[in-house]
Write a structure and sequence with these properties.
CATH superfamily of the largest domain: ATP-grasp fold, B domain
Pfam families: Dala_Dala_lig_C (PF07478), Dala_Dala_lig_N (PF01820)
Family: Belongs to the D-alanine--D-alanine ligase family.
Subcellular location: Cytoplasm
Distance between the termini: 32 Å
Number of helices: 15
GO molecular function, one term: D-alanine-D-alanine ligase activity
Number of domains: 3
Number of strands: 14
Enzyme class: ligase
Radius of gyration: 20 Å
Helix content: 40-55%
CATH topology of the largest domain: D-amino Acid Aminotransferase, Chain A, domain 1
Structural class: alpha+beta
């Protein structure tokens, strides 16, 4: 029986390019070689697609160590230089039509989690891991996510959405509006980025301008939210029609909030599995995670993040991540490992769920 060819798609044009490579490397290492032939498919920062030897070489890099020992910019420049001097031709899209049986999407952030790659694969009739176009696009936009889950009865942080064009047209009016509607601190964040890129915690009016301008560099839609008290609790969800929900996990940031450097460079955050909350709150968080998953029309997988205040018993949804990290420090695979599902079996299930869903039949 011939092996099924899995296109492992990684890299991409987002700010999470390097993390995508680390995730893909972990995934490639555990895909069953007796069932699947892995075709690494690397997308450069500039959007050029490569397979073959060059993509294989990218997967062999120790990106985690490069990020720790140099910087994000330096690591990105190294990858760009490799792409410029590979001497290899870009990917032939005609191969999509006949040479790929399914795709494992390991792209994070823009162009990977926002429905664009999903739409391309639907067009070619190729099954793929994770959510479909609509669920991906909505979950990527934190403002739209808030609207959807609020409709389903799930609490979110008080917040407002600001367009960058509105801010630059009248900065003082925007600042005044925020000051009138919120008490400090607040979070200012791009609506559609992951890994805490572009997010600032603002403690007083003097920090607001810099935070808004930072967020505007990354997105045309900005979300301002009240900073919530409590523990950062995460839940992993897996499946299509009958999703499984993992036990809870907790992130204790090494700095004031769990930012990109904390996650991937300094490795300063602490993880607790299960989360250090009461059994009753743990069960409610798991129920809310499943409700959010269904409300957004998710399939395959998602990691759903909350703030939990044990004193008041308040549970507030923070965000839904439809392609969570698969690095060795990522919470999603750790949560399922702690729930009794090893990493290799998790990847196997994701591939199986992809094959269960005909292309174009998911939301």
């Amino acid at each position: 029986m011939p092996l099924s060819t899995v296109a492992l798609i990684f890299g991409g044009k987002s700010t999470e390019h390097e993390i995508s490579i680390i995730s893909a490397k972990s995934i490639a290492a555990v895909i069953d070689p007796f069932r699947f032939q892995v075709l690494p498919l690397y997308i450069t920062h500039e959007g050029k697609w490569f397979t073959g030897e060059f993509a294989e070489n990218i997967l062999q890099l120790d990106l985690a160590e490069m990020l720790r020992s140099t910087s994000l910019d330096a690591t990105g420049n190294t990858l760009r230089q490799m792409a410029m001097h590979t001497g290899q031709q870009g990917f032939d899209f005609d191969f999509f039509k006949a040479g790929i049986d399914l795709a494992f999407i390991a792209l994070h952030g823009s162009y990977g989690e926002d429905g664009r790659i999903q739409g391309l694969l639907d067009t070619f009739g190729i099954p793929y891991t994770g959510c479909g176009v609509l669920a991906s696009a909505v979950a990527m936009d934190k403002a739209l996510t808030k609207l959807c889950v609020t409709e389903a009865g799930i609490a979110t942080a008080p917040g407002i959405t600001i367009l960058s064009s509105e801010y630059f047209a009248d900065p003082k009016s925007t600042q005044k509006s925020i000051e009138e509607q919120f008490t400090w601190p607040v979070f200012v964040k791009p609506a559609s980025l992951g890994s805490s890129v572009g997010i600032s915690k603002v403690h007083h009016i003097g920090e607001l301008i810099a935070a808004l301008e930072t967020a505007c560099r990354y997105d045309s839609k900005i979300l301002v939210e009240k900073a919530m008290q409590g523990r950062e609790v995460e839940v992993a969800v897996l499946g299509n029609n009958a999703p499984e929900v993992s036990i809870t996990g907790e992130i204790e940031p090494g700095s004031e909030f769990y930012d990109y450097a904390d996650k991937y460079i300094h490795n300063a955050a602490k993880m607790y599995i299960p989360a250090r909350i009461s059994p009753e709150l743990q069960e409610q968080v798991r129920k809310d995670a499943l409700r959010a998953y269904k409300a957004l029309g998710c399939r395959g997988m998602s990691r759903i993040d909350f703030f939990v205040d044990e004193t008041s018993g308040t549970i507030v949804l923070n965000e839904v991540n439809t392609i969570p990290g698969f690095t060795d420090i990522s919470m999603y695979p750790r949560l399922f490992a702690a729930s009794g599902l090893p990493f290799n079996e998790l990847v196997e299930k994701l591939l199986q769920f992809a094959l269960e869903t005909p292309s174009g039949a998911r939301s």
